[in-house]
Amino acid sequence: MKNMKIFARTDIMQLVMAFAALFLLAIGFSIASPFFRTFDNFVGILLATSVNGILALGVTFVIITGGIDLSVGTVLTISSVMTGVFITNNHFPVWLGIIGGILTGGLAGFVNGVVIAKLKIPPFIATLGMLYATKGLSLVISELKPIYFNDTPIFRKLAMDSVLGSIIPGFDIPNAVLVMFGAALIAYIVLSRTVLGRYTFALGSNEEATRLSGVNVDRWKIAVYSVCGLFSGLAGVVIAARLNSAQPALGAGYELDAIAATVIGGTSLSGGEGTILGTIIGAFIISTLTNGLRILGVPQEWQMVITGVIVVLAVFLDRLRKRQS
Length: 325
Description:
By secondary structure, this protein is mainly α. The protein contains 13 helices and two strands, in the order αααααβαααααβααα. The chain has helices spanning 2-32, 39-64, 72-89, 94-117, 123-142, 153-160, 163-167, 175-193, 195-212, 217-243, 254-264, 276-295, 300-324; strands at 147-148, 245-246. The chain has a two-stranded antiparallel sheet with strand order 1-2. α11 (254-264) runs parallel beside α13 (300-324).
């Protein structure tokens, strides 16, 4: 009971620190540039966060178990490509193409889970292999060409139209942002209110003790990686709708932003700790930082340097917090 109270306090502290960092970033950039605090720029930050936020939700599950998934970026790519194949090439109904794209991601996550749980391949190596496999398959399936959704304009509208704008005039927040928050709500319920969520934390806290208590560790580990794949598939559908095309060369590097958002949001790389709210805040920190530095004219290479320093600092603070606990 005492340990649970300690974890609860440290989780709250981590959330407060992450939110404070986001608030200070927003205040600092607002003072530095009046353009930063415009409504259009606010919408731009929300839209930029949508894809990375959804990816980071899936990564959160994996990292809580003490694993890692380097393939989420290219799984996003192949999911968007398969959505294009289903809708544009095979003329499936839009809703069926969307389900197909999401399930493509789920299948990739399932394969990751099987390789890791059954073949005992380390997550780093298994998901690195999936990264290369899905990257190559995306190029092969698309024949090196983007797949456009010009014949189905409804597909883009699903992400870029604004339900809120139709209800509240002038409040034109793209639907893609609502999809991210809806996915976050689902992830929160799964992580905090279901058996899968409990075993996700158990695997990260002490996998061997969980195994000895009679839990089928392999089955739940496969389930966790499958969930991560489903979120990657959803992110692939969203980015395809945003761009009105499936770009087979897109996606590499997205996994780094997703992992960074998860770690900055307080999910421990050692496993056993993490929150969905923290991950969403971390995704907003990444997007706000990138947006603000771009507005201030900071070169992209320095943006990457600053982001890297922040990630290392976040991991250092996590280690320091664990030692104090």
